Amino acid sequence: MSFEINESCGVFGIYAPGEDVAKLTYYALYALQHRGQESAGIAVSDGREVLLLKDMGMVSQVFSERDLLNLKGHMAMGHVRYSTTGSSFWENAQPVQVPSRVGSVLVAHNGNLVNTDALRNKLKAEGVRFRTTSDTEVIALMLARSQAPDIVGAVHEVIPQLIGAYSLAIMTEEKLIGIRDPYGIRPLCVGSYMGGHALASESCGLDIIGAEYLREIQPGEMAVFDKDGLDFQRIVEPRKPSLCIFEFIYFARPDSIMYDTYLYHARKHMGMSLADEGAVEADVVMPIPDTGVPAAIGYSEAAGIPFGEGLIKNRYVGRTFIQPTQAIRQLGIRLKLNPIIRDIQGKRLVVVDDSIVRGNTTKEIIKMLREAGAKEVHMRISSPPDKYPCFYGIDTAIRKELIASSRKVEEIRKFIGADTLHYLSIDNLVSATRRPREDFCMACFDGDYPVPVPDDLKMAKGRLEDGKVGIKRS
Ligand code: SF4
Fold it and tell me: Tens digit of pLDDT for each residue in 24-66?
């Protein structure tokens, strides 16, 4: 369920002499805001010095018009963050900036390393001190301490030492670099803009500034942007491609393109298959907004049952830093969703959502629908049961909190209070992506982690149960 899974981060970078790169970055981050609402940062370079502004909060809260006017240069990078490693405080906001022999090194990261502790301990043994608790600072410090003659050399030296999921934007006074890990777990793509170039976690970050989408950075590849243009270089040998399947199901915006497919179309297709697999007589198909919408449209079309929006999302809830009072907290899901009672009363509803994590939110929604007079509630989920936690940058839950890790579908149905419950099969999920299963990480469903997770990470942060891993994100 989209209210229970939090994306990790979004990155953006642009090299465009003569353009207002700070403002372009601001708008790109605005488009990528769904990937993280905890903090935002923009760094700009004019070739001689780098200026960085970052703070806690959403993009519209962090930057003012005047701030952007002061960020002058021809190259910029930006980041929106949801913390998955490291706590939620200012120092952990990104980009992370550290000084080096040859100037500044700035790093913005989407993903999670699984060997952070080993890398950090090595640096500590060399006398390095840390200001943050994030794995991004470890990467930045490794790059800054490299004896290579320039940042490209430093990247070639450092990146092969990283294990895990990383889509990175790196900037110095002179160059901007985009890098994707050898498995391509997190997305990163490149576009052209007014004689220059840009990179973004998702193509919607390019669209919003009018950049033309060129292609994805391939697993194990880096893209270097500087005065000579754009250059792609192999940085590490690519491994089995393992794009996170949840980018297709929910995380990324539906108007983004991944693996040459609009995610909207893939999600609609998931809904169509769901209608085949989980057919039921009903009066209306309604989504849990917003992420359930394309699959609900697909379900409605395939089943011939009218589509209706029975639940309206409060679009500006976002992340609030004001603690709710007890009375407000008791409103629970009402803070996020409000039912249109007239469209629900006496109706048999098919309710489409992207996933169920702990099950508590789904239970609350179904209770709300019944209180609004729904006659039947048939829950349809456009992904398979979510049984295993993520080690690669997504804040889901520890294993024992994942309701599908210990309960069968019928038990989950009873817990959430639905009349019927159906999850999309893995086969039909894969078919909706138009790519082979091998091209994805599906560890949430099958426990098959493409990048081996070190035992010490499982033991240190996980709570082992029945031999399976579990991890609590900070
Ligand atoms: Fe995505 Fe799950 Fe794999 Fe994490 S473990 S990358 S959330 S499929």
Answer: 999 999 999 999 988 999 999 999 999 999 999 999 999 999 9
The residue type of 321 is F
pTM: 0.93
Question: Do 76 and 51 contact (CB within 8 A), yes or no?
Answer: no
What tokens does 113 get?
Answer: 């390393």
**Cα separation, 426 vs 206, whole angstroms:** 31
How far, in Å, is the centroid of ligand 1 from the Cα of 443?
Answer: 6
Which domains, and CATH codes, for the chain? 6-239 (3.60.20.10), 257-314+335-434 (3.40.50.2020)
What CA–CA distance (Å, rounded) separates 442 from 358?
Answer: 18
Give the distance (Å) from ligand 1 centre to CA of residue 341.
36
Q: Whose CA is nearest to atom 6 of ligand 1?
A: 244
Strands ordered across the beta sheet of 39-45: 50-56, 39-45, 75-81, 9-15, 196-200, 189-193, 212-216
Annotated catalytic residue 9: yes
